[in-house]
Every structure is written in structure tokens, then in C-alpha cells.
């Protein structure tokens, strides 16, 4: 199956309200171009330098999503062009995104990363941290960031019951805060689900899925 066929097959299974993020990390520009010519316009990368290199080489109507863990000192490199930052898990990081967005006269959309997995290695906010961040008075001073939703990564397991439990938990938090009105917060996007579990994520309310290997094939880390 070609990359183009993979994209068409996946898109045929997605409801119209669900956005497909093609996770293109480690993949060459030629692969991204094939996906682009098949109509894909949203790409996800997990390393800022690699994403910036690709942004420079590829058509400018692509939306670039930063889906990996973000180091504050690297934010400046993607601030001119990034469309959505998925992994925001601290006020300090929001402050830096706001600062760099202001320098570029932009408002950058962000998703708050919620810790839903049982593994300790996954990044993200717990419910108490989420509540304090969303209600933090100083949040509204960050006028160059816009919190548009939540994202989460389920435990890496074959146990679909556990994965479903984690997705439903994230959806319940999303529902809980959807009515929250602050000048720079309006929750519309719930990013959850990857190649192995995206159908289950959609059943649980996901509006954005991050799919890599099912589009581009197994990643080569060599």
C-alpha cells in the first residue's frame, strides 16, 4: 500500500469532525510530499529542529503540529510557524510560548497534556494541576496563547478495557471544563488516539487522531 492509499483508507474511516494528524517524525520530506499530494495538510513532529527543517522545504499551506515534549529553550524556533502545540504541561511553558508568539505577532494554539496513562514516564498534568492552571489568575495575561483543548496518551498496552477507561477519563475532564470561559481558553479539540487505538479514541469522543505508522509504515530509528 502506498502512503496515498493509506491516507485515503484512514480518512474513509474518520467522521467529518475528526482531524487527522499525520505523524511524520523521522520520515523523509519525499514521504511527506506524497502525503501532501494525497490531500493531507496536517503533520505532526516531535522534534522542533526536524520540524523546522521540513517547514522550510515544504509547501506553506501545511499546518505543523508539535506533538512531542517541548523544551522551553526550543520554543523560539517553531514560534514563527507552528499551528498547534500538543504537549503543554506547565504554566512556565505557556509563558515561554506566549513570549515567543508575541515576538512573531502571533497567537499560538495549545493543547494541555493530561496524564492519563499508568506509566510514570508519560508527561502531563494531573487533575489538581489542571484545575489550578486553568483557574490561575495570571493565565489571562498570556494574550498570545490560546488553549483550545486537551491531549493525552493512553498506556502502551494490549488491554483495550484499560485504554478505553483512560480515554473516557480524559473526555470527562474535557466535558467538565468545556464551559470554562476565559479570554484565552475555549476548549474545542480533544486529541487522543494513535495508529493502534484511534477507532476506540473516536468512540470515546476524540476530535483529533495522531497517526504515523499506519500512514508511513514502521519508523526507522536507525
Q: What this model shows, in words?
A:
By secondary structure, the protein is an alpha/beta fold. The chain has one domain (18-214): Alanine racemase (TIM Barrel, Alpha-Beta Barrel), CATH 3.20.20.10. Helix content is 38%, strand content 19%. It has 9 helices and 8 strands. The protein has an 8-stranded parallel β-sheet. Helix 6 (127-135) links the parallel strand 5 and strand 6. The mean pLDDT is 95.
Quick rundown:
This protein is α/β, with parallel strands linked by helices and 222 residues long.
Strand order of the largest sheet: 7-6-5-4-3-2-1-8
CATH superfamily descriptor = Alanine racemase
Runs in which pLDDT lies below 50 for 5 or more consecutive residues are none
Structural class: alpha/beta
Strand content: 15-25%
CATH class: Alpha Beta
For the terminal residues, how far apart are their CA atoms? 23 Å
Tell me the overall shape.
globular
As for the number of domains, it is: 1
User: Overall mean pLDDT score?
Assistant: 95
Quick one: biggest sheet?
Answer: 8 strands, parallel
Can you count the beta strands? 8
CATH structural fold name: TIM Barrel
- The helix fraction, in percent, is 25-40%
Order of secondary-structure elements = HEHEHEHEHEHEHEHEH
CATH architecture: Alpha-Beta Barrel
Helix tally equals 9
Amino acid at each position: 500500500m502506498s502512503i496515498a492509499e493509506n491516507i485515503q483508507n484512514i480518512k474513509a474511516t474518520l467522521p467529518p469532525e475528526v482531524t487527522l494528524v499525520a505523524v511524520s517524525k523521522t520520515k523523509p520530506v519525499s514521504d511527506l510530499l506524497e502525503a501532501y499530494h494525497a490531500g493531507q495538510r496536517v503533520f505532526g513532529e516531535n522534534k522542533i529542529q526536524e520540524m523546522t527543517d521540513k517547514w522550510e522545504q515544504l509547501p506553506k499551506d501545511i499546518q505543523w503540529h508539535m506533538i512531542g515534549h517541548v523544551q522551553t529553550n526550543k520554543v523560539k524556533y517553531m514560534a514563527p510557524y507552528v499551528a498547534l502545540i500538543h504537549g503543554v504541561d506547565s504554566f512556565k511553558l505557556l509563558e515561554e510560548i506566549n513570549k515567543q508568539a508575541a515576538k512573531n505577532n502571533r497567537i499560538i494554539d495549545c493543547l494541555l497534556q493530561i496524564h492519563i496513562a499508568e506509566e510514570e514516564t508519560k508527561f502531563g498534568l494531573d487533575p489538581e494541576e489542571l484545575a489550578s492552571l486553568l483557574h490561575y489568575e495570571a493565565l489571562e495575561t498570556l494574550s498570545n496563547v490560546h488553549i483550545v483543548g486537551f491531549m493525552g496518551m493512553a498506556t502502551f498496552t494490549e488491554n483495550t478495557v484499560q485504554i478505553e477507561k483512560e480515554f473516557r477519563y480524559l473526555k470527562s475532564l474535557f466535558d467538565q471544563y468545556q464551559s470554562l470561559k476565559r479570554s484565552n481558553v475555549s476548549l474545542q479539540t480533544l486529541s487522543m488516539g494513535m495508529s493502534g487505538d484511534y477507532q476506540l479514541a473516536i468512540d470515546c469522543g476524540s476530535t483529533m487522531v495522531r497517526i504515523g505508522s499506519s500512514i508511513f509504515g514502521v519508523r526507522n530509528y536507525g
